[in-house]
Specification:
Helix content is 43%, strand content 8%. It is built from 15 helices and 7 strands. The chain binds flavin-adenine dinucleotide. The site of flavin-adenine dinucleotide has 28 residues, from helix 7, helix 9, helix 13 and helix 15. May have a photoreceptor function.
Length: 430
């Protein structure tokens, strides 16, 4: 047997299940070195003085990395944790542990691919290979009915062809053992303060607590799908009114979209709407792969900006516009890091089309605040709403609200919130 160690560089794939880099490393090497690196780049202050990663998302990430470490320990393995630039940390560890190859999942957005390239270049100087895997989408790139460069820009055409000609691969097995080399210093999980942040204050009005990690993701998967299923079975209720709230876990890969897909399959047609949502997610990622930064910056602003847009933007972000639904949604975002898809569309549409604000500032604000921030989904959705891409898709017509719908009955507009389903499969509402 060869004496081979493969470094598994965890990034937005913080899971054991359906994780091809982990499985392949176990299969190809004698020893596996699992590593997570807290990159200071993501915790810096932006030009506007905001945090690139807000404290709700940072806390969620810390919980997810801690859970990954615990789950790896269940296999007798250990996760090495470092704070530092991956282009320095990964080569240092590769040298220290005599690694012969590094595995990671390929990203699509500019900043993430840039970091991969820096790591690749640094490893290359050591004659080491960074091997890229595909693992962030529901459909595998190789199974699409067209090469990336020919992916239809229209979501409707993309959907029609993919659903007709492609299928989702099965999840990959979970390794039955993981052998790691002897690790001298596994490293401590940083605190929020070490990352330059303060502890978030949990608002008593929040209806959900998002606990980071694969363990919580699997609980949420089963809980939310049985609720959605029960909901869709009820007469007069529309599946589009409920959601899984899985996005924070999917965004950093505590669960794979493929695993969610196969779980949804068990619910027959009641899961179709969720598959459609996951397809939107794939679509944005593939658009970034095809167009790169041009996908969001082809035409910077569709509309003319208001002269006093800075003042209006501050009112928007603080929830001080005077429009009840907009303000309630922004209060909820600021206090919890999460708002529904519909409210995201409404507040984004309001900033762009009513206040004539700069959509890129709105997207950057969401980047800081959202607990489920994901570059392709966030910037892709904003670009659509701003009309700098193909904004004629029907999904985005709901962003235009009737005046009456802009009235919120209370602050923190809590839409329907089931607490459980009974034995007959009916919902028991909170
Ligand atoms: C302006 C704006 C910004 C957004 N920013 C993000 C973001 O940073 N990260 C993010 O994950 N989603 C983003 N979304 C998409 C969507 O709002 C969230 O994914 C959704 O609210 C998550 O709720 P859920 O998990 O209950 O979704 P469900 O309805 O249960 O859908 C299942 C999964 O499909 C994916 N999904 C659903 N809708 C979309 C969509 N429109 N675009 C892409 N993926 C989708 C998510 O991974 C979600 O968890 C944004 C939408 C808008 C309008």
């Amino acid at each position: 047997m060869s004496d081979k160690t493969i470094l598994v560089w965890f990034r937005n794939d913080l899971r054991i299940h359906d994780n091809e880099i982990l499985l392949e490393a176990v299969r190809k090497a004698d020893k596996v070195l699992p590593v997570y690196c807290f990159d200071p780049y993501y915790f810096q202050l932006t030009e506007t003085g905001a945090h690139k990663t807000g404290n709700f998302r940072a806390r969620f990430l810390l919980e997810a990395v801690a859970d990954l470490r615990k789950n790896l320990q269940g296999f007798g393995a250990e996760l090495i944790i470092r704070i530092g630039t991956p282009a320095e940390v990964i080569p240092q560890l590769a040298e220290e542990y005599h690694v012969s190859e590094v595995y990671h999942h390929r990203e699509v957005a500019y900043e993430e691919t840039n970091i991969s390239e820096q790591v690749e270049a640094a490893l290359w100087k050591m004659r080491l290979n960074l091997k890229h895997f595909i693992g962030h989408t529901m459909y595998h790139k190789e199974d699409l009915p067209f090469p990336i460069k020919d992916i239809p820009d229209s979501f409707a055409v993309f959907k029609k062809k993919v659903e007709r000609d492609s299928s989702v691969r099965p999840v990959v097995p979970t390794p039955d053992h993981i052998s790691v080399p002897e690790i001298a210093d596994a490293g401590e999980l940083p605190t929020l303060q070490q990352l330059g942040l303060t502890d978030p204050i949990d608002d008593p009005r929040a209806t959900d607590y998002f606990q980071g990690g694969e363990t919580a993701a699997l609980v949420q998967l089963h809980k939310s799908l049985s609720i959605v299923d029960g909901f869709t079975k009820q007469k007069g209720r529309n599946a589009s009114d409920c959601s899984t709230k899985l996005s924070p876990w999917i965004s950093i890969g505590c669960i794979s979209p493929r695993q969610v897909y196969w779980e949804i399959q068990k619910y027959g047609n009641n899961g179709n709407l969720l598959k459609l949502e996951l397809l939107w997610r794939d679509y944005f990622r593939f658009m970034f792969k095809k167009h790169g930064q041009k996908f969001i910056s082809a035409r910077n602003q569709a509309a003319e900006l208001a002269a006093d847009q800075d003042v209006l933007f501050d009112k928007w972000k603080l929830g001080e516009t005077g429009v009840p639904l907009i303000d309630a949604a922004m209060h909820e975002l600021n206090a919890t890091g999460y708002i529904s898809n519909q409210n995201r569309q409404v507040v984004a549409d309001y900033l762009v089309n009513t206040l004539k604000g700069d959509w890129t500032k709105g997207a950057a604000y969401f980047e800081e605040k959202l607990i489920d921030y994901s570059p392709a989904s966030n910037w892709g959705n904003w670009a659509f709403i701003a009309g700098v891409n193909d904004a004629k898709e029907s999904k985005y017509t709901i962003a235009t609200k009737l005046p009456k719908e802009l009235e919120a009955k209370t602050d923190f507009v809590n839409t329907w919130q089931p607490s459980s389903i009974d034995e007959a499969g009916d919902l028991v509402e909170a």
